[in-house]
Design goal:
The complex is a heterodimer. Chain A is α/β, with parallel strands linked by helices. Chains A and B meet through strand 8, helix 12, helix 25 and helix 26 of A and helix 2, helix 4, helix 5, helix 6 and strand 6 of B.
Chain lengths: 801, 200
């Protein structure tokens, strides 16, 4: 019988601790427990522990393969360890008394490394590390794969993908939550449920870290959201020490009572982790023996998640920020072409600050490598924003790559009624989970009537169901079209929203399409949004920077009892008022701008917003280049000199640089790129192995301010990547940063490579560990102790060209 | 404080904030104006997100002039040996203020570099203050040497590999990178010698 079939009718008893028992048997600190599988005497002990768990009543015992992966063992040893580990568990199963059905799991623990961007393990490498172990597990006869003690959502996803892609075995996934009820990297239980269930885990839950009582709130959260079996393997309380040996505070009876409480609430598989022994599992077996089995209910929730939290649709309207999208945006297109990720991320973070709950991500331009850029932007966004993302692309390759690497349960934009679209998207949803926006159009275009659009929605639902995708994983977009082109467009879309809502379907619309071609579009958009909300719209793809839209949203929620005590509305109102006052006050600032030196002063003081506003005013009367040369650059020089004389400090230098940057942004928007002039190209990077980039970013910021065209390759960059960038741009200057003595060799290698293969390029270096002497020894052309020195040298290079 | 020979995870209350020290890390000075205001703003944003966690274990050590032996490992470092001279035991610990601060820093690197600079300095001051708090707790029941970290003097940064074999960083959410740096970035590992005649 398959374990998953058995679980439908029975409570499953798991095993207890292994590591703590091996420590008690003499496992030394730092010693690899999996090696014991290969030692005749010690493997007998492992087999005996397995046997005792089976005799205590366990249905599923985890083989001793927790840390077995190629980061810790050679390939040959890894194979031997997995083979021996599973064989030990099987022999124990054959030897054990007890008539219960018995299964054996390949145990997969964390790699011990943290994934990028905060760690250094690439997602694809993590998948391949786990995949290797999974294939061995299959080869040597595991009945099931038990992923456990994972404290990072992305690593959990990598392990689950590896299991699904390399076996047909049932997969159990268990995470380790802290006392705050979250994973170490921040994920809530609801976020994990959304991601893991969507990807097809067979049972999910939690183990390790704390005792049963402390973890009960997390179990409850799993039970509230999960539609699949929930498992629970807590520790025997917290460890203390007696006579130099670890000792767990909770005794078997108390432990079993805590675990039985979880089973009573609906947990379908229970056992123990650190500090538990066969005696604990025996006690659990007795405590749960007479419990009635609670049915596992389908929750039919529509949930997406980020690496921290879940967003649920259908309760209160969800705002999806639409601004990360090049359509009709000159500045955004330029940012995509010049790989200006800061601008793109800034668009995301501003929408978040203005109230977006989800960010749409669309980077499609005909001339760019969309799969690569979409993944890059998505991953960079996930490094700085905790909002769930809506992956928006028509490129199937880009969609798959992004869904694969997304940290959480994504929103997919979009599928539609065309057979080709459904054939592309539904398999991706089966594999990677997620919720899709379903557009009511098909091979015949967009129907003119609500009837036609509902019919397509029904077709999509039926096709999805055939692929095992229930309707709650679809959000229908009945397509708001320009009302200026078709006076019935608004009513058609609204009627479709009403009917879909009545059918129990969720809906979303790109609200601002409605006003295309009309003046003062915000006015139309705000009212159309209100009408749609009134008819039951569940989500809107919209501009969170629009005050009209946000007013509608907050007022609607306040009026419909969705905003307890009007807390959100009042907070919104408070944010709204100062903004309006500031607007009306701005003309008073105008005379100062006329006087000319005002912008200089504002930049010197580091006032970012004023710098942008003043530049805008100045542009009305003066040519852009004059503003740059007569205002911005002199201001930067003043601050730079003050810094060099130690009258000003690094924060002030940076604040001024930021103010200048916002002035430049205004100028960029007003002047086409080619007319701006500018100085030579500079390639900048933190060298391989080094992840410190604050210093490098400061230098980049200042170089940009002084008009250099900077290509920032980021941190931990290989010598070859730096060489390629220098050659591609024929850059006359490269700037390298290293903070650690251990990465100076990588810097030396980069300098050598550049001098050999790009002899025209000067190389300047900087960073905490460097000195003039060091720089000379590695053959750098210039050493700068600080950012201003780097700017001065770059100016010098630029003049010699 | 009861010291275990096993991995022991501890949580500390937030130690008092030393603003001068933060500004020193940021290469700044209090100016009674924009810098101070920015610092207060950064503190208000960062402090609620910090956790103060330490993972430690007590080790029996053997000190020779050339290095220190503990738990079957050898740490070749004359300076560490000098620091731990006369100690039969040492405490090895890892301290961290957690990953959320790294996320904040990453975010403001993009959006607001002055803020990133100060947040980075806050992190440096906080994790050092945490180490001080841990050492002060140790000093209540033992005579302790000053702490000594991998990467200082002649104790190679590669020692981190051994440190992480002895400490299960996962318990407080600290991981070692290939570069021998740690994540979260505001983390510290160090040895502290325990002079005889204390603790037990």
């Amino acid at each position: 019988m398959k374990i998953t079939d058995y679980m439908r009718e029975h409570l499953l008893l798991l095993d207890g601790g292994m590591g703590t028992l091996l420590q008690a048997a003499g496992l030394r600190p730092g010693e690899a427990p999996e090696r014991w599988n290969l030692d005749a005497q010690r493997s007998a002990l492992i087999r005996e522990i397995h046997r005792q768990y089976f005799e205590a009543g366990s249905h599923l015992v985890n083989a001793n393969t927790f840390g077995a992966n190629r980061l810790h063992y050679t390939i040959e040893e890894l194979e031997a360890i997995v083979a021996a580990g599973l064989a030990l568990a099987k022999t124990a199963r054959d030897a054990a008394a007890g008539t219960q059905p018995k299964w054996i799991a390949l145990d997969l623990g964390p790699t011990g490394k943290l994934l990028k961007p905060y760690g250094d393990l690439a997602f694809d490498d993590a998948v391949s590390i786990f995949a290797e172990v999974v294939r061995l597990g299959v080869r040597y006869g595991a009945d099931c794969i038990f992923i456990e003690t994972m404290n990072d959502s992305l690593e959990t996803k990598a392990a689950l993908l590896a299991a699904k892609e390399n076996s047909d075995l049932p997969v159990f996934v268990s995470n380790a939550y802290g006392a705050d009820g979250k994973l170490m990297t921040g994920a809530s239980p609801a976020a994990m449920v959304a991601m893991l269930e969507g990807m097809g885990a067979d049972a999910i839950g939690l183990n390790c870290s704390l005792g049963p009582e402390a973890l009960l709130p997390v179990v409850k959260s799993y039970l509230e959201h999960a539609s699949i079996p929930v498992l629970f393997k807590p520790n025997a309380g917290l460890p203390t020490e007696i006579d130099g040996k670890p000792f767990y505070t909770l005794q078997p009876a108390a432990f079993a009572a805590g675990v039985a409480e979880a089973a009573r609430l609906g947990a379908r598989a229970v056992g123990g982790c650190c500090g538990t022994t066969p005696a604990y599992i025996q006690a659990v077996a007795e405590a749960v023996a007479d419990l009635p089995l609670l049915p596992i209910r389908k929750k039919n929730e529509t949930v997406i998640s980020s690496y921290t939290h879940a967003v649920t649709f259908g309760k209160t309207p969800v705002l999806i920020g639409e601004r990360i999208n090049p359509t009709g945006k000159k500045r955004f297109k330029e940012a995509l072409r010049t790989h200006d990720l800061d601008y793109i991320l800034g668009e995301g973070l501003r929408q978040q600050a203005n109230g977006a709950q989800v960010l749409d991500v669309n980077v499609g331009l005909p001339e760019i490598d969309e799969p690569a850029l979409l993944c890059e932007v998505m991953q960079e966004l996930q490094a700085v924003s905790d909002l769930p993302l809506q992956i928006d692309t028509g490129d199937a390759v880009a969609m798959e790559r992004a869904l694969r690497r997304y940290n959480g349960c994504p929103l997919i934009n979009s599928v539609n009624g065309k057979a080709e679209s459904m054939a592309a998207i539904f398999p991706l949803m089966q594999k990677y989970g997620g919720v899709a926006i379903a557009l009511t159009l098909d091979e015949n275009g967009i129907p003119a009537t609500a009837d036609g659009r509902i019919a397509i929605a029904e077709n999509i639902m039926a096709a999805a169901a055939q692929n095992g995708i229930p309707r709650h994983r679809l959000i229908f977009d009945p397509l708001a079209m320009a009302v200026s082109a078709d006076p019935t467009a608004a009513e058609t879309a609204l009627e479709a929203v009403r009917r879909l809502h009545a059918m129990g379907c969720l809906t979303s619309m790109g609200v601002s399409n409605i006003s295309f071609g009309l003046p003062a579009r915000d006015a139309i958009n705000g009212v159309f949004f209100a009408c749609a909300l009134e008819r039951g719209l569940s989500a809107a793809i919209m501009n969170p920077d629009s005050a009209e839209m946000m007013k509608t949203y907050h007022a609607f929620r306040a009026l419909h009892g969705m905003d307890a005590d009007f807390g959100d509305y009042i907070a919104f109102a408070q944010r709204l008022q100062p903004a309006q006052t500031a607007q009306s006050a701005s003309p008073a600032g105008a005379p100062a701008a006329e006087s000319g030196s005002a912008l200089q002063d504002v930049i010197c003081k580091g006032l970012r917003e004023q710098a942008g506003a003043l530049t805008k005013q100045l542009l009305e009367t003066r040519p852009p280049l004059e503003i740059v040369n007569a205002q911005i650059i002199p201001a930067l020089d003043r601050v730079g000199v003050g810094y060099e004389k130690k009258q000003l400090y690094l924060p002030q230098l940076l604040m001024s640089a930021e103010a200048a940057k916002s002035a430049f942004e205004v100028i960029k928007a007003a002047v086409p790129a080619e007319a701006r002039g500018g100085k030579c190209a500079v390639v900048i990077a933190t060298v391989r192995g080094d992840i410190h980039d604050i210093g490098k970013n400061i230098v980049r910021l200042l170089l940009e301010n002084y008009g250099f065209t900077v290509t920032d390759l980021g941190k931990d960059v290989t010598p070859e990547a730096i060489r390629d960038a220098v050659i591609a741009r024929h850059a006359p200057l490269a700037a390298l940063s290293a903070l650690m003595t251990t990465t100076v060799p990588a810097m030396a290698e980069t300098v050598r490579l550049l001098h050999e293969e790009a002899p025209w390029c000067k190389v300047m270096v900087g960073g905490a560990v460097l000195t003039q002497d060091y720089a000379d020894r590695i053959g750098a052309d210039f050493y700068s102790p600080d950012a201003m020195g780097a700017v001065r040298y770059a100016e010098q290079i630029n003049e010699t060209l | 404080m009861q010291l275990s020979t096993q991995n022991q995870a501890l949580s500390f209350d937030a130690p008092p904030v030393d603003r001068r020290e933060i500004l020193r890390y940021a290469r700044a000075r209090a100016d009674g104006g924009a810098v101070d205001a920015l610092l207060e703003d950064c503190l208000a944003e960062a402090l609620p997100q910090l956790t103060y966690r330490v993972l430690c274990r007590r080790l029996e050590i053997e000190v020779t002039p050339a290095g220190v032996a503990a738990a079957g490992f050898r740490f070749a470092s004359r300076q560490l040996a000098a620091r731990l001279e006369g100690c039969a035991q040492a405490v090895l610990f890892a301290a961290t203020v957690g990953l959320p601060l790294d996320r904040l820093i990453a975010r403001y690197q993009r959006l607001d570099p002055p803020r990133a600079l100060l947040l980075n300095a806050i992190g440096a001051e906080r994790v050092e203050a945490l180490c001080d708090a841990f050492c002060a707790a140790l000093a209540e029941s033992a005579i302790c040497t000053p702490r000594f970290s991998p990467g200082y003097g002649d104790l190679a940064l590669e020692t981190q590999q051994t440190v992480f074999q002895l400490l299960d960083g996962r318990q407080i959410g600290v991981a070692l990178l290939d570069s021998m740096l740690m994540t979260p970035s505001k983390s510290v590992t160090a040895f502290i010698g325990l002079k005889t005649g204390e603790n037990e």
